[in-house]
Amino acid sequence: MDEELTVESRIAPPSLSCPKCNGLLPSGLGEIECVLCGAHVRTDHEPTRTKWMNERISCPSCSKVLIAGVDHRPAELRCGGCEAQFTLTAKVVRVEIECPSCHRGLRMIQRPGQRMIDCPACSTTFKVSF
Ligand SMILES: [Zn+2]
Ligand SMILES: [Zn+2]
Ligand SMILES: [Zn+2]
Questions:
Q1: Sign (positive/negative) of CA torsion 118, 28, 88, 68?
Q2: 83-125: per-residue pLDDT in tens?
Q3: Ligand 1 is an ion; residues with CB less than 5 A from it
Q4: Which of 19, 24, 25, 77 could pair covalently with 112 via S-S, beta carbons 3.0-4.6 A apart?
């Protein structure tokens, strides 16, 4: 049985907005498609590439600390210690928002567009957009 090993990168590229519709672009570098207007945008950010290259991660199988050595995410890596293959995935960007009714802080994954949120504390439904 092969189970999929993944490690989430801790380094996110900067949040960029679409030059066409000014909405939030999905997190990533390279050719990105705006989910709001469909525009294709080329993004790059050298400091993020450098940080990705030098990011230290621990092998999900043997916990040995490795240097990623690749400047893109996701990336397929192989551990030099135990030979396990795993996927280094892009960081999932989470943001904290505040419920407009009870002011409780809610952590959520940042995705472009509008979403309805149900506050788990006071059950108020409200709209967020990025
Ligand atoms: Zn757009
Ligand atoms: Zn290993
Ligand atoms: Zn609330």
A1: negative
A2: 999 999 999 999 999 999 999 999 999 999 999 999 999 999 9
A3: 18, 20-21, 23, 34, 36-37, 39
A4: 24
